[in-house]
Amino acid sequence: MRVSLQLFGLACLALQGTHADVKTVWKDITSDKDIQLEQGGASSLIKPLDDALPNVSVDQVVADANHEMTIKSGKYKWPATKDDNEFDSESWYPQGISSSVDAGDAKYNKNHLFLVSWYAKKDKEKGVRITFVNTNASPPKYRQVLLVEPTGTSSKPSFKTVGVHAGGIAWYSNLLYVADTDHGVRLFDIDHIYKVKDGDGAGRQSNGDYHAYGYKYVLPQVRRYKTHGDPKDHDYTYSCLALDRTSNPPSIVFGEYYHAADGDASRVARFDLEPSTHLLKVDKDKVATAAKVLLHGEHRVQGAITVNGRYYLSQSNGDDDSDIIGFSPGDKSSKQYRVLPPGSEDLTYDKAAATLWTLTEHPGERYIIGTPIGEISS
Q1: DSSP of 99-159, one letter per residue?
Q2: What is the pTM for the complete model shown?
Q3: Rama region for 109: left / alpha / beta (φ>0; ψ in -120 to 50; rest)
Q4: pLDDT class of 22 with cuts at 50, 70, 90
């Protein structure tokens, strides 16, 4: 019942927006074969950390949710109270979004979950956190989990925070892909969430305890992909990412963020996944090459995804309402739909609900919001 009510509200929201045909400069540059990522090895410190710390499940994290959201006009709104103010805070900024639908289970053990990434704007040493939002709870509830990178030795394993922008995330099976803007992408394993003690700092302390700046749970990095090669135009910027389960095989789509003043043309690149390992497909040298790359003339791209071969971009416009841009290869023009509040970010797709979901980052206007894809597909 909750889902039906929200989709009704979201459909009304989409219909109130405006759209226009925009002359396109989209160009297929896949044949250059120069957008590549090099696969690193799996972390050797996960097993030592498993032995040193309690390993908890997603269900346990969700059951331990300690914050509440509200639903306003079909949008999930972050709290704005004296003691709990994610809506207006300038300390953390939301960026990426994925869901249990991406993970492969629309009802993750009977719960529909959103995952949202935030980067620390003020206390940068805290890095990035992931919010696990249970939309089946009434009201929706969530718990924050800090991302960490294993450090130390097998006898004294530790971890440090992850200093990336986290402009896009994708939850595929047990892996969480996190965009690492200038360097590629990092992977975190949902099957290894650790419970730590309350305290300052991050990592193993002198007394053997583990802290995470007061956060109760941490999610460790298990692998990363680094930029590889020398692209013809300019180095690829991995600003945002999303999972496409409608492609065969499933794929990760990366978008680039540039201002028009930067002078660089933006691209969108799709990398095939290996369903058996949930990793990017690589060659014998452990190098992944983009299966499809399109050059386009759009700027300020905050989210990018493909659904059934059609491209969708989330475009921010400062303090003005944001756009979703739609394009299919062969089109003479792209479609620009001004249907989102200011500050739109990453994208994720729910096939069963036929809805594109995004989130907004501006303090005082922070929501998780869905748009029925049927309203922006023609």
Answers
A1: EHHHHT-SSBTTB-EEEEEEEESSSGGG-EEEEEEETTSSS-EEEEEEEEEEEE-SSSEEE
A2: 0.94
A3: left
A4: low
